[in-house]
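Below is a filled-in request sheet from our internal design queue. Each sheet records the structural input a requester submitted and the sequence that came back. We keep these sheets so that new team members can see what a complete request looks like end to end.

REQUESTER: design group, bay 2
PRIORITY: normal
MODE: inverse folding
CHAIN LENGTH: 419
BACKBONE (tokenized):
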């Protein structure tokens, strides 16, 4: 009886030990959970590459043996079905890759992944487009630029908000201020006429550069107001001038003729003329912060056209004879006697409009650079290489490149052309 009890106890102890060993083995061989991983938004792109990152949020209870990115032109790429991949085997919670050799103007889809003993898991999909633009940056020896023009020798002139004008002659910058004949150092606008003369609007009158000589015009010479906001050199050799007190002036080289834009009586009014576009048949479109969009033709004024009663910043009549208006809140186009409005992206304050040799319309605004081409809008932003997101001026160079300035950086935008 005693021996039986002992034998039973031994068997019980043995069974208990065996159970513990089995449980331990089962615990060791139980599959771990899949990890958790996320794909972050694209940090930046250029015409053939993108920088993308991911993060491991949880390892699932076992070591992460591989992590990285998969991408493809088709959605939801995997390691087995992708255009390419980047794999990192060393331990790292956060990882980043510079994806190269991508195609301009192509949309790609990317997902982060992570692998542990339980298998491979994929994060959220992030889609991005490779920029079709080549954007170069030049650091300027000054800041505060607000106007750009090219002279007949294709030299760039940049007007500043208090430092006069800088003119690039080859790789060297020349500097024009009041000390060499400029009427004032605070530049508000610039234009070039058919004779190649550069006209400069300032806070205290107009300066004209011709044959290495400055010629200045103020109220003493016939200007209605010395605070200049806009200039337009018409093909019939008239210079149209927008000033303070909502006035428009025409200069034929000898005589200044003044026009009161505001419909109210009196010689002056609040507001400024910010934009002018004149046709050879003497139809003049005028943009004002006070009277909006106006038209002067056959000695008659029409105001608040298309309901635009304030803050018209820019006007352009395109090669296709479409009238483009940059307003504070939207872009407007008059084509075939029909008005259309556009609000591309989260943009506002459409300050400058230009047309390139391919008839594309470029607009500088708060939010980046807007581009209209063949009925489609595009938006050039920091993701394409523009660091700031607000521009007040742009200019199309004779070779079709688009130039714009922010701070002390000159940006040159062109389209990527594969070799």
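RETURNED SEQUENCE:
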């Amino acid at each position: 009886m005693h021996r039986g009890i002992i034998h039973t106890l031994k068997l019980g102890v043995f069974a208990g030990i065996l159970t513990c060993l089995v449980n331990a083995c089962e615990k060791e061989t139980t599959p771990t959970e899949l990890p958790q991983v996320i794909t972050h938004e694209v940090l930046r792109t250029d015409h053939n590459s993108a920088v993308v990152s991911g993060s491991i949020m949880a390892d699932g209870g076992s070591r992460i043996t591989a992590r990285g990115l998969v991408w493809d032109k088709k959605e939801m790429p995997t390691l087995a079905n992708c255009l390419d991949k980047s794999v990192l085997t060393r331990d790292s919670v956060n990882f980043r890759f510079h994806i190269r050799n991508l195609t301009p103007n192509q949309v790609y889809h990317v997902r982060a992944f992570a692998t542990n003993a339980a298998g491979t898991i994929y994060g959220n999909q992030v889609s991005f487009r490779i920029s079709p633009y080549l954007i170069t940056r030049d650091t300027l020896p000054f800041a505060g630029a607000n106007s750009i023009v090219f002279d007949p020798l294709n030299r760039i002139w940049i007007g500043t908000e208090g430092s006069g004008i800088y003119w690039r002659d080859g790789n060297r910058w020349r500097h024009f201020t009041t000390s060499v004949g400029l009427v004032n150092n605070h530049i508000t606008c610039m234009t070039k006429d058919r004779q190649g003369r550069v006209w400069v609007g300032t806070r205290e009158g107009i300066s004209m550069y011709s044959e290495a000589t400055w010629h200045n015009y103020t109220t003493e010479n016939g200007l209605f107001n010395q605070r200049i906001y806009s200039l337009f050199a018409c093909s019939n050799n008239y210079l149209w001038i927008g000033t303070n007190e909502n006035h428009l002036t025409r200069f034929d080289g000898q005589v200044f003729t003044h026009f009161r834009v505001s419909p109210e009586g009196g010689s002056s009014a609040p507001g400024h003329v910010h934009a002018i576009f004149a046709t050879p048949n003497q139809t003049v479109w005028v943009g004002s912060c006070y009277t909006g969009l106006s038209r002067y033709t056959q000695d008659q004024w029409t105001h608040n056209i298309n309901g635009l009663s304030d803050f018209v910043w820019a006007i352009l009549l395109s090669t296709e004879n479409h009238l483009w208006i940059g307003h504070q809140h939207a872009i407007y186009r008059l084509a075939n006697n029909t008005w259309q409005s556009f609000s591309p992206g989260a943009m506002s304050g459409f300050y400058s409009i230009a047309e390139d040799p391919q008839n594309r319309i470029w607009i500088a605004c708060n939010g980046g650079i807007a581009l209209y081409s063949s009925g489609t809008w595009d938006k050039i932003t920091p993701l394409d290489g523009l660091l700031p997101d607000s521009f007040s001026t742009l200019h199309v160079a004779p070779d079709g490149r688009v130039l714009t300035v922010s701070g002390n950086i000159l940006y040159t935008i062109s389209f990527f052309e594969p070799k």
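SHEET NOTES:
- Residues 278 and 374 are 25 Å apart (CA to CA).
- The chain has a mean pLDDT of 89.
FILED BY: M.R.
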